[in-house]
C-alpha cells in the first residue's frame, strides 16, 4: 500500500469496498485531518463494518445513501470510530446504522441528520432506535449540537429517561414538531448546563398519523432556561397551537432572554400571520430586556 505522508483531506466513496482495505488505506495517511465517506447501500450490502481508526482526524463527514426499494429497513452496517481528537462530526444517515465511538472530549460541532424518510415508512424497534441514543452519548461533550426532525423522532422511540448530559453545550439546534421531538425538548433543556442559543425549527410540512403525536411536557422549568439562554429562534413555524404553546413556555420562563425570533413558513396567510404576531406579542415575558422579532 502506498503511503500518503502529507494527505490531510480525503473523500472516500464506498461502493463494493473492502473494509479491511479501507482500514489499511487510512493507516497509510498518518496526518489525515478531514475525511468524507459516502456509502451507497444499494450496491454495498455486503460491507457490514467500517473501521475508522484515525488518531489525527479532526473532521468526519458520513453520508449513508439508500434506495427506498432496499428490503432492509434498518441498516446492517456498523461504523467503529476511533478518533480521539475529533472536533467536527456530520452524519447524514437515513438507514439508522450502528455507530460505535470512543468518547470525543475535544468535539465542538456535531450534526446528526436525516432518518425522516425511514420513519415515514417504518417504525424502528427500541433496540434499533437506540443506535441514535448511543451515538448521542458519544458526542455529549460538543459545544454546538444540531439534530434533524427525523433523528429527534428516532430518539423518542429510544427514550426512557436516559438522555445524556451536555456539560459544554452552548448552542442547541433541534428540528421539532408535535410528532418529532417535542416530547424531548424539556429533557434536553434539563440535561444541558448553560447553552446560550436555542434554535427550534420545523423541517417537514406534512400530516402524520396521530399515533405519533406527543404533547409538550413542561412541568419542570430548567434552571439554565431561566438564567442562561439569551437568544431563541423558532423558524419555519405554521402557527399551530402546539407551536404557540412552546413559544409561550419559552417566553414566560426565561429571565435573561434578549432576543426571540419567530419565523413562519412563506405561504402562510397574511391575515393569520398578522394575528399570530399579535398573539405572540401578548404572551407573558420573563425578561425585561427582551426584543421579539418576526420574519
UniProtKB/TrEMBL annotation:
UniProt xrefs under InterPro entries: FBD (IPR006566), FBL13/AtMIF1-like (IPR050232)
Boundaries of every FBD domain copy: 223-295
Classification via PANTHER family: EMB|CAB62440.1-RELATED, F-BOX/RNI SUPERFAMILY PROTEIN-RELATED
The protein, known as: FBD domain-containing protein
Amino acid at each position: 500500500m502506498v503511503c500518503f505522508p502529507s494527505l490531510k483531506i480525503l473523500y472516500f466513496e464506498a461502493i463494493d469496498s473492502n473494509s479491511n482495505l479501507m482500514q489499511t488505506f487510512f493507516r497509510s495517511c498518518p496526518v489525515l485531518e478531514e475525511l468524507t465517506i459516502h456509502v451507497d447501500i444499494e450496491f454495498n450490502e455486503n460491507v457490514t463494518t467500517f473501521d475508522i481508526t484515525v488518531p489525527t482526524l479532526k473532521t468526519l463527514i458520513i453520508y449513508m445513501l439508500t434506495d427506498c426499494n432496499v428490503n432492509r429497513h434498518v441498516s446492517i452496517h456498523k461504523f467503529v470510530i476511533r478518533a480521539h481528537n475529533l472536533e467536527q462530526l456530520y452524519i447524514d444517515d437515513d438507514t439508522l446504522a450502528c455507530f460505535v465511538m470512543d468518547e470525543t472530549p475535544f468535539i465542538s460541532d456535531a450534526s446528526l441528520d436525516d432518518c425522516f424518510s425511514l420513519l415515514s415508512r417504518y417504525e424502528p424497534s427500541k433496540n434499533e432506535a437506540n443506535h441514535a441514543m448511543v451515538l448521542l452519548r458519544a458526542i455529549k461533550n460538543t459545544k454546538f449540537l444540531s439534530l434533524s426532525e427525523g433523528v429527534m423522532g428516532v430518539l423518542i422511540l429510544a427514550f426512557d429517561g436516559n438522555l445524556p448530559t451536555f456539560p459544554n453545550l452552548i448552542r442547541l439546534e433541534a428540528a421539532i414538531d408535535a410528532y418529532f421531538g417535542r416530547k424531548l425538548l424539556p429533557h434536553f433543556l434539563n440535561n444541558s448546563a448553560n447553552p446560550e442559543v436555542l434554535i427550534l425549527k420545523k423541517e417537514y410540512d406534512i400530516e402524520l398519523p396521530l399515533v405519533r403525536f406527543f404533547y409538550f411536557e413542561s412541568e419542570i422549568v430548567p434552571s439554565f432556561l431561566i438564567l442562561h439562554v439569551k437568544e431563541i429562534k423558532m423558524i419555519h413555524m405554521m402557527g399551530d397551537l402546539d407551536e404557540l404553546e412552546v413559544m409561550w413556555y419559552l417566553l414566560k420562563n426565561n429571565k435573561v432572554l434578549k432576543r426571540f425570533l419567530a419565523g413562519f413558513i412563506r405561504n402562510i396567510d397574511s391575515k393569520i400571520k398578522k394575528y399570530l404576531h399579535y398573539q405572540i406579542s401578548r404572551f407573558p415575558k420573563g425578561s425585561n430586556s427582551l426584543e421579539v422579532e418576526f420574519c
